[in-house]
Amino acid sequence: MRTPVTIIGAGLGGLVLARVLHVNGIPATVHEAESSPAARAQGGMLDIHDHNGQLALEAAGLMDEFRAIVLEGRQALRVLDRDGTVVLDKADDGTGGRPEVQRAELRRILLDSLPAGTVRWGHKASAVRALGDGRHEVVFADGSTVATGLLVGADGAWSRVRPLLSTAVPEYTGTSFVETYLFDADTRHPVAAKTVGGGMLIAPAPGREIFAHRERGDTLHIYVALSRPQDWFAAVDFTDAAAATARIAQEFDGWAPELTALITDGDTAPVLRPFYALPVGHRWDRMPGVTLVGDAAHLSAPNGEGANLALLDGAELGRALAAHPDDTEAALTEYEQAMFPRSAEAATFDGTELHGTDSDENAAHALVDMINGHERGR
User: Fold this and answer.
1) What angle do CA 166, 148, 7 make, to 5 degrees?
2) Would you say residue 77 lies in a domain?
3) Does 286 show up as a binding residue in the annotation?
4) pLDDT of 350-362, one tens digit each?
5) Is 295 annotated for ligand binding?
6) Sign of the CA dihedral with 261 first, then 264, 267, and 273 last
7) pTM for this structure?
């Protein structure tokens, strides 16, 4: 009999794993700390790559559903210097291989593809312990427990499952995002809408960057990246939205007003998002009955690969388990031996590495050179 799988975490990796297992007739249960699918916002846009994320959705049999949620035109890219000069203005011709979707909509199609009751909401894992013989017990915050012969940690950066396998703890990368939104941008913020264009905007400089995504409709999602110690951000009072916005904008003094307005004209209070990462090349020795997917396994600085790797992890683990129905350990070994080098290679590109360029003037051109080099290498 195939071993039922217990998955901790209903993020993209855990859900695509559950879906691929379901397609292959293997029972699984997903335990999620959030109380419902709508318990919190699910983040912004994701570019789902043809060489990893889309392969996972193909394995899950969800490509038609995926295509239905793709936002056309969002692969467009603009790169601006700090003075507002447009260094790159790349249209979306539909051939980019990285169509954009809203994370919440991608999660919804995964949830909708699972049998009712697969996800147990409001089940926050508080402790996990080994029972011997490859079995483990998960204790939830409400006092309930579950024992399982196959445990998968899909529970993100601060995974409760990871300590079974590794002593590694995420560390601050030195960079944080500050997020805000501009709503009804085409009518209420026309200059910002024109500056961002139809897809993504990047305005880079050493130690600081402004990113913007055009999401569904005419919502602009603004991300300000700053390479500062955590103590610096702790000194900013994010409970005072106006003061926090002014302090963040001060770091962009002298920039073109159409760029600084992306910060100062926000329609929502700024939200701080510090970045943490596990050591590049993080791995563990094979331990019976347990493994990790996604950020629980290989949390890294944002570089456009995290969600795609989580999707591929879930799909590849599901396929390995289906290919070895009578040998779970063979399946876990096969999965991990492919996942370790794949995630290490992806982590070597840090999406914030341009902060190290030697001048504001060089940063935008260096980014364009990197983009062009990457496209030539595809």
Assistant:
1) 65
2) no
3) no
4) 444 444 344 555 7
5) yes
6) positive
7) 0.91
